[in-house]
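REVIEWER CHECKLIST
Item 1: Sequence provided? yes
Item 2: Single chain? yes
Item 3: Sequence as submitted:
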Amino acid sequence: MTSVAETVEEYCTQLRRRQIEGSMPCAKRTAEIMRLLVTNQKHADASSVIDDVRSVGHKLQAAKPVELAIGNIVRRVLHMIREEEQHDELSSSAMSFAVTKQDTQKQSGPSLLSQALRLPSSSARIFPFNRAVSLSNLLDVGIEELEELVEKVGGEAAVAEAFEAESHASTKKKQKSVPQWKNKQHIIEAINELIDELDNIQQSITVQGVEHIHANEVILTFGMSDTTYLFLKEASKKREFQVVVAEGAPKYDGHIMARKLSDAGIQTTLIADCAVFAMMARVNKVLVGAHAVLANGGVVGTVGMHMVALAAKKHSIPFVVLVGLHKLSPLFPHDPDLAFNDFKSPADVVDFDVVAEAFAQQGQHEEASGALGTAPSSNLATVSSLASASSIGASAASTTSASGAAGGVCKEGFMSAGGAASQATALGHPCGSVHVPNPMYDYVPPNLISLFVTDMGGYTPSYVYRLLAEFFDRNDYLLSKQLNMSS
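Item 4: Structure as written out by the authors:
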């Protein structure tokens, strides 16, 4: 049987190798690992569960920082544990209050003399005629016999109290010897409900299509989004409308979107990204998917989406984002510790055949100039990709620091390899370098967004702070900060 640590390490390896792509697969896998952790590990109380979940969650998020859905699921599980802990504390407080009240009533109860007078068995031993002790015959009892009776009753009460204290201590010791939090089963059930919620998110969003799309409308979308496709497909069962699809360069997955919509019987028009502003005047609504929703109501989406949002704002067209709440993140875009952009291979922008030709021509120029050797191998290696994660705010710095990571274009029209291009220029060849960064995501500020359509209904960007309070705890916003404080 695979241990929890091995499962976590295997998942981290898959994330680093990009074998698991997409927010939904990552969210489901993270929830399953959280359930496995809570089920198999022994925890004495809620604090130990929180520490384990936070530690594993921070490790998973560090394996792929750009996938914010991983941290979102970890924070939701932590919120469940904290709520259960608070409920447990309230129950314990109520129980201790009840016990204290009972003890107070016992302490203010009848005295030993009154107990002695109420014991028929003791009075039977004193009175041979089995008369009950009362105020009328109290003087008939001898002083010595009465003192003996009081001592006897007091001794029995002391023995009973000692026995009760011993049994309570043994029970408490037995509970301490079992390192298992009694409310773990409630957490497991809550995680199961979360997994079921993830399975039904797309359906919960798509059924709202009829409410937001009206007859004979023209809808514009950007690139390929499974949620947007299913949303439009569901609405087309009861509405007649047209869809304009921007192709979404450099991936051009808008071509796939247009084909799918056409196969579903929806009238579809495919346009280039540069034609979005020109087509926006004929559009009634913009529908797009999103990679993440940030704490300020902004959105991380496919690269190029900011351009579409600006065009929609200019023409006063509603910009609607279809997104599940598993993508809701409590992080802000200006957080310097946050990395929510990724750079992929420049091959999507510049074909590798052109880069290879640039290397060959550059080598010929170096030989003609009498240069010794070829370009360093490090420059050759960096041409292949720009796949380093970076925040959106630091993208410019990342591009600058990655000089030589992409090809350059000489004035004669051929490509040159970044770092070697400067050598060619130094040798008198009129060639400069052109960097080819290929970011995956864009940031859309909240002032450009009209509405979020989620699995729990429609919300405006100004309502996001209420959703954060409902799903997350403030102590878990930054997992790394909490780990440093606890250590």
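Item 5: Key structural point noted by reviewer: The chain has a mean pLDDT of 78.
Item 6: Recommendation: ____
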